[in-house]
Task: inverse folding
């Protein structure tokens, strides 16, 4: 793989991935502020600046290595946005919405990507860059759908674990949070063994419907 090809793959996959991660964390902080906690804002995390959210290993090294080596596993993470539950009026309910904001933000970006594909297909289809731009937008949609469904897995420390907490007895949720290191290892094992391939089902189903809807009627 030459430098031009590596640069192209970084542009197609890493940049959208980085943007999606930043938007995801920004959404957590934004909803937290709406619910009464401005910790993220005070710590400079209520921003789309990638430097504020980057984790050296999870945001930079692992994704770039996956792209350069074309590994079957493309995986990464950002630094979680800090939330102080003591600032929330109703911590149990508020944490549910704060956690859900991350995956929902990625679903929103996937929808935006499909709208942009529709715009390109309708107004720019004859342009020389149209097909390339559509492919980039398709990758953007897949990236955001994967982040959304991955984070909805009901295990701590993922958002899905915090979403599930809203419906569990407080004592049970406390035990799950205390054993977060164990569920983190379980999650990593699922990633490394390829078990998370099951996410391809909701991701591809959603992707196919969004792209078909976006291109419908334009003959693409």
Result:
């Amino acid at each position: 793989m030459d430098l031009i090809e590596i640069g192209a793959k970084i542009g197609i996959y890493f940049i959208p991935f980085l943007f999606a991660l930043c938007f995801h964390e920004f959404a957590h902080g934004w909803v937290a502020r709406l619910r009464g906690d401005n910790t993220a804002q005070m710590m400079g995390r209520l921003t789309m600046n990638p430097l504020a959210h980057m984790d050296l290993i999870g945001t930079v090294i692992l994704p770039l290595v996956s792209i350069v080596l074309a590994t079957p596993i493309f995986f990464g993470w950002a630094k979680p946005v800090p939330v102080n539950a003591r600032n929330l009026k109703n911590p149990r309910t508020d944490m549910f919405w704060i956690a859900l904001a991350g995956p929902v933000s990625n679903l929103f970006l996937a929808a935006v990507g499909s709208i942009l594909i529709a715009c390109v297909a309708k107004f720019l289809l004859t342009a020389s860059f149209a097909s390339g731009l559509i492919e980039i937008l398709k990758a953007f949609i897949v990236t955001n759908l994967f982040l959304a469904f991955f984070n909805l897995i009901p295990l701590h420390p993922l958002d899905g674990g915090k979403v599930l907490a809203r419906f569990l007895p407080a004592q049970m949720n406390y035990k799950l949070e205390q054993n977060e290191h164990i569920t983190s290892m379980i999650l990593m094992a699922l990633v490394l063994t390829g078990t998370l391939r099951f996410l391809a089902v909701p991701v591809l189903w959603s992707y196919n419907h969004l792209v078909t809807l976006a291109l419908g009627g334009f003959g693409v």
About this structure: The longest helix spans residues 91-123.
